[in-house]
Write a structure and sequence with these properties.
about 200 residues, alpha+beta, five-stranded mixed beta sheet, four-stranded antiparallel beta sheet, globular, disordered N terminus
């Protein structure tokens, strides 16, 4: 009986060891799951950071990188007049534009004249709103400029010879010949877009 009792005593402690092994196994699996979640979160964060970095890497188009030209000339009743302005990227690399071009008026001696620029809808086109435009080399963006000339030849209008066009985010401007009378120096302009539909 003593031998049988000893055998029973020796076999008894094995049960806690099995429970410990199971607990250890569950712990290892749990840690692996946590590690997997951590790696997945890291990968997601890394991908987002890469995307953000790529977006931030596109520089803003400087005035020197752009060629400004006039496109379609716009006319209509009630002394309204307008024109489509185009900014083409000729920098040899991709750059971005966002927002409204700055406008100014100059006389024949390139002296600044009184001018007021209004952003939004114009007589000829609805405002497309501010959007980031990524322009590859050779691509362009456009905006619609409008004004009235009811007071031509009077003190109620500014006689301009040149139009200053400042790209968004730039401190330098392009200058185009602009022999126009502009009531009170007031100019309206839309935001830049790939293409703007003009109301005929």
């Amino acid at each position: 009986m003593n031998e049988q009792q000893n055998t029973t005593d020796q076999a008894g402690p094995a049960k806690p060891r099995h429970r410990a092994e199971r607990r250890f196994g569950r712990t290892v699996v749990g840690l692996a799951a946590v590690a997997g979640l951590g790696l997945a979160a890291w990968a997601t964060t890394a991908n987002a950071a890469t995307t953000t970095s790529a977006a931030k890497a596109t520089p803003t188009c400087s005035a020197g990188a752009l060629k400004a030209t006039f496109g379609r000339r716009l006319a209509g009743g009630m002394n309204h007049q307008g024109v489509v302005i185009t900014l083409r990227n000729l920098s040899g690399r991709t750059c971005a534009l966002r927002g409204y071009p700055g406008l100014g008026l100059e006389n024949s001696a390139h002296k600044k004249l009184t001018a007021h620029t209004h952003w939004g809808n114009t007589w000829y086109a609805h405002n497309p709103g501010k959007k980031t435009l990524t322009l590859k080399d050779g691509q362009s963006a456009e905006a619609v400029v409008a004004w009235t000339h009811a007071n031509t030849g009077t003190s109620g209008a500014v006689r301009a010879s040149f139009l200053e066009i400042t790209p968004p985010g730039s401190t330098q401007h392009k200058t185009l010949a602009f022999p126009q009378w502009v009531d009170h120096g007031d100019l309206s302009v839309t935001a830049l877009a790939r293409h703007i539909t003009v109301n005929d």
